Amino acid sequence: xxxxxxxxxxxxxxxxxxxxxxxxxxxxxxxxxxxxxxxxxxxxxxxxxxxxxxxxxxxxxxxxxxxxxxxxxxxxxxxxxxxxxxxxxxxxxxxxxxxxxxxxxxxxxxxxxxxxxxxxxxxxxxxxxxxxxxxxxxxxxxxxxxxxxx
Length: 150
Ligand SMILES: CC(C)(COP(=O)(O)OP(=O)(O)OC[C@H]1O[C@@H](n2cnc3c(N)ncnc32)[C@H](O)[C@@H]1OP(=O)(O)O)[C@@H](O)C(=O)NCCC(=O)NCCS
Description:
Layout: E1 2-6, H1 12-21, E2 36-41, E3 44-54, E4 57-65, H2 74-88, E5 93-98, E6 111-113, H3 120-123, H4 126-131, E7 137-142
Parallel strand pairs: 4-5
Antiparallel strand pairs: 1-2, 2-3, 3-4, 5-7, 6-7
The protein binds coenzyme A.
């Protein structure tokens, strides 16, 4: 059975290993661990999603599902649970940069936009300053307190 739950501080090494195995950046992950969720299967982490808070905006990052667990809706559930955590923390809008899933996030309500429209506060995030290439697509989604739990 797979359970989706808030990440614990002790999950950091397993999250970083999952990100590295899927060629996703780990730089700055500590900024997002307080608003991160994991999918746990018999104690093992098979998926994660995290949000770096920057003022009233958040950077959704590190959305990842282990190869053998993809295609069962876990990715969607992880993002929805991370959104719920973010909304509960008062974040109004989420942004993300992606080189690999620009066609997937619109299914979850994210819309592509020019990178320059990201709030200045996010520009200092490690993903903006280097971990993600300049060619990565920017997507955004406005959150409401009614954002459904996964
Ligand atoms: C993107 C990702 C998290 C999706 O996880 P998942 O658990 O398979 O997602 P879901 O089961 O909710 O959705 C599966 C559907 O999305 C599609 N999909 C999955 N990844 C996709 C991608 N990168 N681009 C476009 N569509 C994608 C699948 O084909 C499937 O389509 P279907 O429902 O028509 O069959 C997973 O593929 C992954 O970890 N990729 C590598 C890391 C990555 O690129 N992360 C995003 C950047 S931060």
